[in-house]
Amino acid sequence: MRSPARNAVPAADPAAPAVVVEPLFDNQAVSSARALPLYMQLAQHLRQLIMGGAINDRDALPAERELAERFSVSRVTVRKALQSLTDEGLLQQRQGAGTFVSAPPRVEQPLSVLTSFTEDMQSRGLTAGSVWLDRTTGTASSDEALILGLSLGERVSRLRRIRLANGVPMAIENSVVPSRFLPDPGAVSGSLYDVLRARGHIPHRALQRLSATSLTEDQARLLDTQPGSPALHIERRTFLPTGGMLELVRSSYRGDAYDFVVELQLSAPSIPSRHDSEAGS
Ligand code: GLP
Q1: Which 3 state secondary structure label does DSSP give 162?
Q2: 106 confidence band (pLDDT: 50, 70, 90)
Q3: Of 57, 186, 207, 269, which has the fewest beta carbons less than 10 angstroms from its beta carbon?
Q4: Ligand 1 pocket residue status of 252, Cβ below 6 Å
């Protein structure tokens, strides 16, 4: 979670921030025809603009009064919306200076390196967190047993959690680990990989399949975004150095918070040789 200090910066900003230009806002985004309270609708709209990169880090939002006029809501509604985004760590309210966007955790993730969520966030200066949805043990389902190479009836630990970066939900992760590697899922409070490594089970290699999807209503609620928003479904199968499978993870990453980056190299046979280039010239 973000530390409160980050949201309460009293000092004047050294660099003059740009004030967000009005046409960016969709004044239809807040409507009393919708069931959601108005302040939540406004917070949702601003959150999407921030997380989607339409409003830049450190930009200043227009004054409360202007926002109230733009969205035809009361200043109390605007204040509540701004407060909830401040609590999430997406805005900073500076006394006498206004309301500013604070760094949205849009993450670029290389696909060729095997790292944990905690390491990914730490390497970007973000604090990783989890909201636990489930930590249980049970008998592997036939699907899990087939994938993990277990005998029917073998036990597994299941971990289901929302992964957070600086308190902002980034992904829903469902991990299944054979109980012989992790008998007690309750032993994981922070990093799963740290616990596995400490037990001598080193995540060594992984295969990952990514596919485009959109969030269901439940997933969107957990990730604090709109149903139908784009997302990436990722399945990771992680192996031990000995080749045995250590974990099966199925996750849904918010499309507006993650960029997956792949490095491509020219394959060796298609690099023209000196002889070829000389012959062609
Ligand atoms: C990433 C991977 C998961 C893995 C997790 C471990 O999110 N996609 O397969 O289980 O990292 O992260 P941590 O060690 O922070 O729990």
Answers
A1: strand
A2: low
A3: 269
A4: no
